[in-house]
Write a structure and sequence with these properties.
Two copies of one chain form a homodimer.
Chain A: E1 3-6, H1 12-21, H2 31-44, H3 46-57, H4 70-78, H5 82-100, E2 107-110, E3 115-123, E4 126-130, H6 139-152, E5 156-160, H7 170-179, E6 183-185, H8 189-198, E7 208-210, H9 215-224, E8 229-230, E9 238-243, H10 249-260, E10 267-272, H11 275-292, H12 295-304, E11 306-309, H13 316-323, E12 327-331, H14 335-341, E13 347-350, H15 356-361, E14 387-395, H16 397-413, H17 417-427
Parallel strand pairs in A: 1-11, 4-5, 4-7, 5-6, 7-8, 9-10, 9-12, 10-11, 12-13
Antiparallel strand pairs in A: 2-3, 3-14
């Protein structure tokens, strides 16, 4: 049974604080195993990748067959039902259009002192995206990582995905093709992250790696962060659905379960000012679970689900901010007014007719979002994550004369005489 | 003696590759010590902070005296020579003006399908900045971290700095005052990072921590990354000075040493097409070292310094990109043309009259920059580092009808039936 909290209860504050602090991330310590895999791939390159792939993915592979051929990628299209072609293409087009609006602007200006300053954005050269295999091998993951990278202008976009027992999801290959991925390798796990970082004979190294993965992939990214760029530390997914009495319990139940079905440690929370709606939604969740026979969603809802009753939706904003949810669905009459009152959420789904699933696939905004209250300080994936900014400064003689003495004075005060000399020698 | 490389040498490619790959970051393993400090502060709060501060900073302190009082901060101003007031104020004003131009724009648009989508930026609520104590206690560090945070709109900006033996740099306190820091604590090391992350009785927790620090501070930030946001993994500083025959050897020598004097493992590199200039600059470096008696700079230049001779400056761009330097000084006749040909650098200093030290203090752009070739994939500190972006999606009934069926089809193909239901129930 999901936890039930009500702001009308005397002990609400303490119970809500405990609920906010309760972690769902299991601390599997895989660091030693991952460190061994990373060292092996760094030392032996392709040979290590081939050995580890045979062992973990139970398949024969050689350095020559690690990379998917153009024929294999082209053949994937034929294995997909035609209506899925159109759906993927519509999704790719809409995601591309949204992210194209995120390209950042350069800046170049001369100030009153005659000093020119600004910045220039440029794409990261080589990027790797990791796509999980098996049951969580999703074409939407490919689109949401690869399209922003290509919009940014990444010149070489490499994808790795494990193919356990040789099985690959043709939708993943076709999505990669649609998104403009340049190279695809049948490698997964920590060995894929290490191969992308250090390079092997077959796989040239990249500068940054994005994409979700299991505990081994996440730990490898954490260990190699700094040597390569990474996207984020991602935890289990969550949704907070805020509903008023006009919301439809069957719609809300599907919204809650669409999060819960991702993962046994996913979290779905309903917040409402209508106790009758809360009751009817809980019933609809149970009925939907029975109809779907969804074990993962059932466990997530029972263990981590929650129903929070508020006396008035005026109480909602600080509670929403405390939860800082990855996904915030506002199934209320005036979602815009509520949005204006909250500060922390990864992505917001406005009104009765915007299910979060639209954002997962086709809305346009990225579905890679900060989890576990990290929306307090971080953002979803964007085009800027595939770029970097170089600032610049250009002093005229007059500009240097105007600001140089103050800089030299500060350098002396900081005990850095060569800094001061580099200015005063030019002023002399 | 600094290493000497020339593109005219037959073995240049291999030697340059080794030079690029050579690490300067020492792998001090402080992880166990830091984990112990973090656990202690998390469990015992102020009591742990007080104990650790007594031990590491050799000073008496209580929970009540951890925070600098307004009177202490005001008194700092009187301990500073008046001309330094003006220099710090000019620096603060220029840094503020530059960063104000970095405030990102929101986006809100309805597309042809009737789907509204966009994003909204907002400041991070609570931010902590770490400022080292002792010899590397710099007011410029305060300005470069605190001003972008306040430009972003951070509502509570907390600074921690160790005061070994009770000593504090009054310039650091005055810079914090100028920059609008809200609270200052005399705490340093891993205990400061843990206190900012978990909070203590005296110090309320923050959402993100920025600023440089020693190996303990860096390891604490790495361990707590995810629980709080952090700025970056920073390594030892470096500069690449590219010079043509019209450059002044004495100016170049000061530029090289202004980097070398930061740290025994800092790196200063000269690249030039003029062997005579190279020789005269090396002599000027030695003369300047003798005049300054600078041990740190002398060791850095001898161990990690380099002079790279190119046959023509046309050879420079790929070498610059391979080094991806934190600081790139272009002491050449046409720096703009060279800038257009390179892709990776943290910050560029254009022309003969722009010493890097201007950027350290007063130019405007941030001096917190990616080191150790990380300019390939990351950027200097900016206003956006103190903000986060919330995306949103708002479907009209028509919009949902237009894109919903494709989303439901993709959800089914991914084996996520509740996702599909959350769409189809609304289409019914």
């Amino acid at each position: 049974m999901p936890i039930e909290l009500s702001t009308a209860d005397a002990d609400f504050a303490g119970r809500f604080a405990d609920f906010v602090d309760a972690g769902r991330e299991t601390a599997t310590d895989v660091s030693a195993v991952v460190a061994g895999i990373v060292a092996d791939v760094r030392a032996r390159g392709d040979a290590a990748v081939v050995d580890l792939t045979r062992r973990f993915d139970r398949m024969e592979v050689t350095a020559q067959t690690l990379r998917f051929t153009g024929a294999e990628i082209a053949a994937a299209k034929d294995r997909i039902e035609p209506d899925l072609h159109a759906a993927l293409e519509l999704a790719a087009d809409r995601i591309r259009a949204f992210h194209a609006g995120q390209l950042p602007a350069d800046h170049d200006a001369v100030d009153a002192q005659g000093i020119r300053a600004g910045w220039r954005w440029s794409a990261i050269d080589d990027v790797g995206i990791y796509v999980p295999g098996g049951l969580a091998s999703y074409p939407s993951t490919v689109l949401m990582n690869a399209i922003p990278a290509k919009v940014a202008g990444v010149r070489r976009l490499v994808m790795t995905t494990p193919t356990p027992g040789g099985t690959v999801n043709p939708l993943v290959l076709y999505a990669a093709h649609l998104a403009g991925v340049d190279e695809i390798y049948r490698v997964g796990g920590a060995q894929a992250i290490a191969a992308l970082t250090f390079g092997t004979g077959t796989i040239a190294p990249v500068d940054k790696i994005t994409g979700p993965g299991n505990a081994y992939v996440a730990e490898a990214k954490r260990q190699l962060y700094g040597r390569v760029g990474i996207d984020m530390v991602a935890g289990p997914s969550e949704i907070l659905v805020v509903a008023d009495s006009a919301a439809n319990p069957d719609w809300l139940a599907a919204d809650l379960l669409s999060q819960a079905e991702h993962d046994r440690v996913a979290q779905a929370i309903l917040m409402t000012d209508d106790t009758d709606l809360a009751r009817r939604t809980a019933q609809a969740v149970d009925a939907t679970l029975d109809a779907l026979g969804a074990d993962v969603a059932r466990e997530s809802w029972a263990r981590f689900g929650a129903i929070i009753t508020v006396r008035s939706l005026d109480e909602a904003p600080p509670l929403i901010d405390a939860l800082a949810p990855e996904h915030l669905a506002l199934s209320i009459a005036d979602p815009q007014a509520m949005f204006a009152r909250i500060r922390h959420a990864g992505s917001v789904f406005m009104g009765y007719r915007t299910p979060e699933a639209i954002g997962d696939y086709i809305g346009g905004p990225n579905h890679t979002l900060p989890t576990g209250r990290r929306a307090r300080f971080s953002s979803g994936l964007s085009v800027a994550d595939f770029m970097k900014r170089t600032t610049f400064l250009d002093c005229s003689a007059e500009g240097l004369a105007a600001v140089g003495p103050a800089a030299a004075r500060l350098a002396e005060a900081e005990g850095l005489p060569a800094h001061a000399l580099s200015v005063t020698r030019r002023l002399g």
